[in-house]
UniProtKB/TrEMBL annotation:
Coiled coil: none annotated. It holds the Pfam family DUF952. This is DUF952 domain-containing protein. PANTHER family: BLR1139 PROTEIN, DUF952 DOMAIN-CONTAINING PROTEIN. InterPro entries: DUF952. It comes from the Bacteria.
Length: 113
């Protein structure tokens, strides 16, 4: 089992729950896939892309359930990141946690590794 994580604003998750699927944040839509991180990558993703952004949550997904629409592709420093080419069904989300901003302005995502 390979758990992967998506950091996003709570409002986007609320909309996805109403629709039954998450089609991606603005950057996902621009890039043509939904960006995910592994547990060991998520902290750096939070620091680089979400510093100062409030009201965030972290979705936990069992990557193996996503089938061929999930691809592992090189990104930051050649590290392989999970990218989902298609919508994320809300039924595929196995956990949702809060990601409050820490004193340094970086979302606190806990220990995901």
């Amino acid at each position: 089992m390979s758990r992967i994580y998506k950091i996003l604003p709570r409002s986007e998750w609320t909309a996805a729950q109403a629709a039954g699927a998450f089609n991606g944040s603005a950057i996902d839509l621009a890039d043509g896939f939904i960006h995910f991180s592994t547990g060991s990558q998520a902290g750096e993703t939070a620091r680089r892309h979400f510093a100062g952004v409030g009201d965030l949550i972290v979705l936990e997904v069992e990557g193996d359930r996503l089938g061929e629409t999930l691809r592992w592709e090189p990104s930051r420093g050649g590290d392989l990141f999970p990218h989902l080419y298609g919508p994320l069904l809300t039924s595929d989300v196995c956990g949702v946690t809060e990601a409050p901003l820490g004193p340094d302005g970086v979302p606190q995502i806990g220990d995901l590794a």
